[in-house]
Amino acid sequence: MITSELETKALLGHSVIDTYGRSLGRVIGIERNAFGELESVQVEAAGGQIAIAKARQIALTPKSITLTPEWKLESEDIISELSLLRKRISALESLKETKEIDNEIYVELVDSQKAGYLEKVRTAEALAASMKRRLSEVADNISSLTRYLVNAKLDHKSGDLDDESLKIAQGSIEPTLHPLIAEKADLSVSLKTLEQILPSRVTVA
């Protein structure tokens, strides 16, 4: 287990990338709870802007500090929790059908389980809406960058852009474009999985 001192040395002042390889800045601050456990870090991005990242988003390796997007972790949590709640409600229904549970206890337990399920569904719907907005932003950015890249290649083909200028254009656009494409694919898969676990209609029977 890594000590607080080693953890601090591994974090403070070091560069941070996201799971898609983009540089996010450097760690300039650390927050710990009363037990000395890491809670969050402050990351200084370009222009001096400060972003807060939760401890669970951080992955330390010998060569880098990698940050997982919060939406990804939240979607994984909610999918797992909704699946479990569905199984528990089904199990209660099964116990009722086989008369292995008293009706009064059944009503009490199923009401509690369904209330928890509906609360998670609302949380999941809000997260799905947020992910859709991010997906739309990413798709727009990909479209714009792809258009710039195609225009540069057209200019090169038509003789308006020399080889060196094309390389500069590609070197400027592609390092930004490739992580966006990876993020879009990741968002699409996670969103599809999240929407599959959500009920088409929320009812309380």
Index terms:
205 residues; 16% strand; six-stranded mixed β-sheet; single chain; disordered C terminus; SH3 type barrels; 4 helices
Structure description:
With 205 residues, the chain is α+β, with helices and mostly antiparallel strands. The chain folds into 2 domains: 4-68, SH3 type barrels, CATH 2.30.30.240; 71-197. Helix content is 61%, strand content 16%. The chain contains 4 helices and 6 strands, in the order αββββββααα. It has helices spanning 4-11, 70-97, 103-157, 163-197, and strands at residues 15-18, 23-32, 38-44, 50-54, 58-60, 65-67. Strands 4-3-2-1-6-5 form a 6-stranded mixed sheet. Helix 2 packs antiparallel against helix 3 (103-157), helix 2 (70-97) runs parallel beside helix 4 (163-197) and helix 3 runs antiparallel to helix 4 (163-197). Mean pLDDT is 91; it is low at 201-205.
Structural class, by secondary structure, is: alpha+beta
Total strand segments: 6
- Describe the strand arrangement of the main beta sheet, using strand numbers: 4-3-2-1-6-5
The shape, in one word, is: flat
Helical content class: 55-70%
End-to-end span in angstroms?
A: 48 Å
What portion of the residues fall into strands of 2 or more residues? 15-25%
Figure out the total of helices: 4
Average pLDDT: 91
Number of domains: 2
Tell me about the biggest sheet? 6 strands, mixed
Order of helices and strands: HEEEEEEHHH
Low-confidence stretches: 201-205
Radius of gyration: 24 Å
Task: Give the helices and strands, then pairings.
Blueprint lengths: L3 H8 L3 E4 L4 E10 L5 E7 L5 E5 L3 E3 L4 E3 L2 H28 L5 H55 L5 H35 L8
Parallel strand pairs: 1-6
Antiparallel strand pairs: 1-2, 2-3, 3-4, 5-6
